[in-house]
Design a protein that fits this description.
The chain has 9 helices and 6 strands; from the N terminus they run βαααααβαβαβαββα. With 234 residues, the protein is of the alpha/beta class.
């Protein structure tokens, strides 16, 4: 049984459509007003300096919109999105989507003493907001760590090795869940166990090299993890 489960968000715990059709449009609508109101904030100013360095000669708002339209995993974009989403979550305008099978398994695994971590291209700020304001309640107390692109690219083995070190475990005792085969390849190269989440509603296509499951309870059954209706082990 894994001693730690690291999970992706988009396409794994949450619908791809939630990100594309709810979170991204929320930022698109709020971006100009947010920048006008907060441009003097040191944290926002630092992000805008990063944007200018990466897109010289381009208006920062235009660069941010272009990256978002192409779903590019650019760190200053992800950081700014997290700030804007915070306003939406705290105002009740946003609620974090999770597939119905996720929360019960996370609770059961945490109760069994299994460390739970999130690794997503979305910023740590955004991850905390999503899991802190889900339809199933605040799940952040279950989670022992969060990693984003500051840890490293999701398709590089070194990123997963770094996560295992932070968790204080050998990679072989860590299970990584994602819908993206290239991410699973990188985690496997680092020595982790892997499982692809193949959500029919997201149109995910199963690869051939990694175990695949349609739901978190299937993951539990395949890797010896407790199911939601089972008492915690030990």
């Amino acid at each position: 049984m894994p001693r730690c489960v690291v999970t992706d968000i988009e396409g794994t715990t949450s619908a791809i459509a939630f990100v594309k059709e709810t979170l991204f449009p929320f930022v698109e609508r709020a971006l100009d007003g947010f920048l006008a109101k907060n441009a003097g904030d040191p944290a926002v100013a630092a992000i805008l300096d990063e944007v200018r360095a990466l897109a010289p000669g381009q208006d920062p708002a235009d660069a941010l919109r272009g990256w978002m339209a192409r779903d590019e995993k650019v760190t200053p974009l992800k950081a700014l999105q997290g700030m804007i989403w915070r306003q939406g979550f705290e105002a009740g305008a946003l609620r974090g989507h999770l597939w119905p099978d996720v929360a019960g398994c996370l609770r059961a695994w945490a109760a069994a003493g299994i460390a739970l971590r999130i690794y997503s291209s979305g910023s740590v700020e955004a991850q905390r907001l999503l899991f802190g304001h889900t339809e199933a309640g605040d799940l952040t107390p279950l989670l022992s760590g969060f990693d984003d692109t500051r840890t490293g690219p999701k398709r590089e083995a070194a990123s997963y090795a770094a996560i295992a070190r932070t968790a204080g475990l050998p990679p072989a005792e860590v299970l990584f869940l994602s819908d993206v085969v290239e991410e699973l390849d990188a985690a496997e190269a680092a020595g982790m166990m892997t499982c692809q989440l193949v959500r029919a509603a997201d149109g995910t296509v199963a690869g051939t090299r990694h175990p695949s499951c349609a739901t978190f309870p299937e993951v539990a059954a395949r890797f010896g993890l407790p199911a939601p209706d089972e008492p915690p082990a030990g």
